[in-house]
């Protein structure tokens, strides 16, 4: 599953996975070891890794399509009332992928989490901010009231699905 191109994008050389710079050679993560770690990922999680960490637009598009399919299956299974001709579910899937792959950087600290020597109060040190409900509603083609009443929980489920894929990637890359 892990190709030489993927390895080249994710790991230009070797990585010291213990965090110490200039560590002993046995502490370095080689490309072969990285390939072994990534081989356990699902296809969706690998697409997320490529989209988020390597900027691969093809992987991002594939991930959006897979999440759309997952969200449509969920909508059908739970019999969501959908207005014919409105791409609400597809828009939710696309936005949730983009929110995970390209997080909304905090405008106050510019993604650092700190303003000077102090913790950024705007993002509470996270460096990113969640999208406002009005932005999500507008992006999904919904009125704010309808979004708050019927669609917020649905969007949160789709977002959690994508965030779970990101968690898989981070869990694999953090393993020793």
Describe the structure.
The radius of gyration is 19 Å and the shape is flat. The protein starts with a helix and ends with a helix. It is built from 7 helices and 4 strands. Helix 4 (57-77) packs across helix 5 and helix 6 (133-140) crosses helix 7. With 176 residues, it is mainly α. 57% of the residues lie in helices and 5% in strands.
The structure class reads mainly alpha
The SSE string, one letter per element, is HEEHHHHEEHH
Kindly report the spatial arrangement of strands forming the biggest sheet. 1-2
Which spans have pLDDT < 50 for at least 5 consecutive residues? 13-28
What is the count of β-strands? 4
Which percent band covers the strand fraction?
under 5%
The overall pLDDT, averaged over residues, is: 79
What is the share of helical residues?
Answer: 55-70%
- Outline type: flat
Number of H/I helices: 7
Biggest pleated-sheet summary: 2 strands, antiparallel
Q: Give the CA-CA distance, first to last residue.
A: 20 Å
User: What is Rg?
Assistant: 19 Å
């Amino acid at each position: 599953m892990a190709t030489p191109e993927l390895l080249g994008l994710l790991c230009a050389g070797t990585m010291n996975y213990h965090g110490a710079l200039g560590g002993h050679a046995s502490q370095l993560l080689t490309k072969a070891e990285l390939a072994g770690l990534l081989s356990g990922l699902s296809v969706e999680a690998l697409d997320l890794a490529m989209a988020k960490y390597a900027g691969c637009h093809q992987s991002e598009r594939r991930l959006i399509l897979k999440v759309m399919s997952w969200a449509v299956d969920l909508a059908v299974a739970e019999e969501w009332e959908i207005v014919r001709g409105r791409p609400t579910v597809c828009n939710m899937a696309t936005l949730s992928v983009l929110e995970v792959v390209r997080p909304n950087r905090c405008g106050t600290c510019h993604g650092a989490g700190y303003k000077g020597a102090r913790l950024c109060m705007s993002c509470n040190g996270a460096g990113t901010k969640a999208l406002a409900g009005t932005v999500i509603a507008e992006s999904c083609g919904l009125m704010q009231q309808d979004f708050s009443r019927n669609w917020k929980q649905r969007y949160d489920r789709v977002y959690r699905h994508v965030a779970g894929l990101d968690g898989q990637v981070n869990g694999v890359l953090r393993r020793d």
